[in-house]
Design brief:
The complex is a heterodimer of chains A (368) and B (291). Chain A has 368 residues and is an all-alpha fold. Helix content of chain A is 69%, strand content 3%. Chain B is mainly α and 291 residues long. The chains are: A mainly alpha (368), B mainly alpha (291).
């Protein structure tokens, strides 16, 4: 058992709580940096591509986590911002803008447009935001078709290669470079996210999540805080969308559909709402499930000669897992890990209701 | 004449949207939870009735099958709340939203696997009959939709404003804790409301499936009904119906007179416009929370 003696106020907001924690994160960093070595050794980069995909999902997940997990605003339309980021990126690259500029601009534009759309709704109750973003998510495909000159409509658009000061990066021909690029963006965003949560802005997000009324009493401007959170969240989603485009190579009007938005939401709930780790755990699960289902299917077909080919099985499985998590482990995978760790740290003094949160009773804001 | 015909058939569609919207406004009003799976409830209700009625399944008499399927959906709604949502009591609204969306996916999968993925229509005794007057052709099914919807809305209005149970539901909606203190069995009320909205969903589903065909993906129609509810003002029963009618009428008009591709967008565009300019909806009931 470890005791951290806090001798200054900074101890509460330090990046790492104690030396051992920092060591673990450095080890993790080394591990992800060294991962490609393994794939070089077996000379097969297919799985590395999948890992890169998980990282991209995690970036989008972090965006949604900031909004839903840390500010308490549900969004069912983050695929729309990914689409925005992706198409802005494609068009800028086609116009000859270097990637180093096009990439951040695509994120910022996605953030700006998203905030403009969400601003009127942000003043209302969270359900309205869910509704507006849901509508947006459904319309995405139609808008992509309508904006054919920029998006290629139904036929789709090819995503140009990345060129950073003469270094060509492509998902297929140079998977290792692409991995390191995505990893760099991911680490940068994690670092920014972690630091954001230490600032007054970041802490005001959490205050708004926990109680709007108390937050206002503390002098927090609700609308501005929510808008800031939405902007940052949509920006991250836009960046993820741009990377997703590079990873897919080709995007059509059906790439960023409602299912993707819902997958993102599912990801952060499974991972653990309100933890940066949650976005990563969730992305890993979402990355693994389709592979697991495909493997299970071929296993059944080979071993028992049973062909399971039920349409919609995948999304139903996703949904089922989600329902189980919300019912039995609302804190997600990371919450479960925290509980296990605490159990061993405090052994034998762990109590069952240690992580119990106070129930909030819903009150309407309607007048009757 | 063409215009009038479009509006009339739009009204029939709008009534179905209105009924779905009615279902989740009921739930929202009483439990403050938003059921994003209401469209799938509707779809399930339609398939239950199809399962009872159509000759390839059980082949029961239509007039026996209708009350039976309404009952089944009522029980389903009650059990859904009793088995799942009750355990989430006190969790944040976001979790409930996510939960109902996930349930929608599961229901769609279930209906597709249990019955069929193909578009199916309900075999009704009045299928294909129509009423003609002065150049207008109206299907009996369409007229029936309008009548049933009007009657249901009126009944609900009476229920919420006149009966003890309705008032208890309103109280539970406004402040769960205070309702508890007043001796209202909030949990049971919640389950009853879910049962009620399951019944409404079954009615909507039966009407919808008798008018055209239905397949599991039709559940996504619920999102249009959401737009209807928000346009009317969440939490207002007549508002839900009016919103549904607006959307139902705008859709055929937009596809007839507007440029291609506009008709799918129109309902959501109206929703976004309403949310931007009159965020509370037409029959607004919201006010700013005061500190």
């Amino acid at each position: 058992m470890r005791f951290v003696f806090k001798t200054s106020y900074d101890a509460d907001i330090r990046l790492f709580k104690h030396r051992a924690q920092a060591t673990w994160y450095v080890l993790l960093l080394l591990l992800v940096l060294a991962t490609p070595l393994y794939f070089v050794a077996i000379d097969d980069a297919y799985l590395l591509g999948e890992i890169t995909g998980v990282l991209i999902l995690a970036i989008a997940g972090m965006g949604l986590m900031l909004l839903t997990g840390h500010t308490g605003l549900p969004s069912l339309g983050h695929a729309t911002f990914m689409a925005l980021g992706c198409y802005v990126n494609i068009n800028l690259l086609n116009a000859g803008v270097p990637w180093v500029i096009a990439f951040p601009v695509s994120g910022l534009l996605a953030g700006l447009i998203g905030t403009l759309i969400a601003l009127p709704v942000l003043r209302l109750h969270g359900v309205y935001l869910a509704l507006a973003t849901l509508a947006m998510s459904i319309l995405t495909s139609d808008f992509v078709v309508l904006a054919e000159p920029w998006t290629g409509g139904i036929a789709g658009a090819a995503v140009p290669d990345i060129n950073i000061f003469g270094i060509e990066v492509n998902r297929y021909s140079t998977p290792y470079k692409f991995y390191y690029l995505v990893l760099f963006v991911t680490i940068l965003l994690v670092w920014a996210y972690r630091n954001l949560l230490r600032t007054p802005t970041g802490r005001s997000f959490t205050a708004v999540r926990d109680s709007e009324i108390s937050a206002r009493a503390m002098g927090i401007n609700l609308t501005r805080t929510k808008a800031t959170s939405f902007f940052l969240s949509a920006t991250a989603a836009g960046l993820a969308g741009a990377l997703f485009g590079h990873s897919a190579g080709y995007v059509t009007n059906e790439t960023f559909d409602l299912v993707m938005s819902i997958t993102l939401l599912l990801m952060i709930v499974i991972g653990g709402l309100g933890f940066i780790h949650g976005a990563f755990f969730g992305a890993i699960v979402v990355g693994i499930i389709p592979v697991a289902i495909a493997n299970g299917r071929s296993f059944l077909a080979n071993a028992f000669d049973v062909n399971i080919n039920i349409p919609g099985l995948e999304s139903a499985m996703f949904a089922f897992i989600l329902v189980c998590f919300i019912l039995f482990e609302p804190m997600g995978l990371y919450g479960r890990w925290l509980k296990i760790r605490t159990y061993f740290e405090l052994f034998p003094f762990y109590r069952k209701d240690m992580f119990k949160r106070q129930k909030s009773y819903l009150k309407t804001d309607r007048v009757q | 004449m063409d215009f009038l015909q479009l509006i009339l058939s739009g009204l029939a569609n709008g009534c179905v949207y209105g009924l779905i919207a009615l279902g989740f406004v009921l739930i929202y009003k009483a439990t403050e939870a938003v059921n994003f799976a209401q469209g799938d409830f509707m779809m399930l209700g339609a398939f239950v009735c199809i399962g009872f009625t159509n000759h390839e399944y059980m082949g029961l008499n239509f007039w026996l099958a209708v009350p039976l399927s309404i009952l089944v959906m009522g029980v389903f709604g009650y059990l859904f709340n009793w088995g799942i949502l009750r355990h989430m009591f006190g969790q944040s609204q976001t979790s409930i939203v996510i939960m109902t969306i996930a349930m929608g996916f599961i229901l769609r999968f279930f209906a597709g696997t249990f019955w069929t993925h193909e578009p199916t229509s309900l075999e009704t005794p009045y299928a294909g009959q129509d009423i003609r007057s002065g150049g207008l052709v109206l299907g009996v099914d369409e007229v029936l939709i309008v009548i049933v919807t009007a009657v249901l809305t009126f009944l609900f209005y009476l229920f919420f404003s006149r009966t003890r149970m309705g008032l208890a539901m309103q109280a539970a909606s406004q402040n769960q804790l205070a309702a508890y203190y007043m001796g209202i069995p909030v949990r049971r009320i919640h389950s009853l409301v879910w049962g009620l909205s399951g019944m409404v969903a079954a009615v909507a589903g039966i009407l919808f499936a008798s008018k055209g065909s239905i397949d599991p993906a039709t559940g996504l129609l619920g999102i249009k009904a959401f737009a209807a509810a928000a346009i009317g003002g969440f939490g207002s029963l007549p508002g839900a119906l009016v919103g549904g009618l607006i959307i139902g009428v705008v859709e055929p008009l937009a596809s007839r007179y507007g440029p291609p591709g506009v008709s799918q967008i129109a309902p959501y565009a109206i929703l976004l416009l309403i949310l931007i300019f009159r965020p509370g909806g037409i029959f607004s009931q919201t006010q700013k929370k005061k500190v």
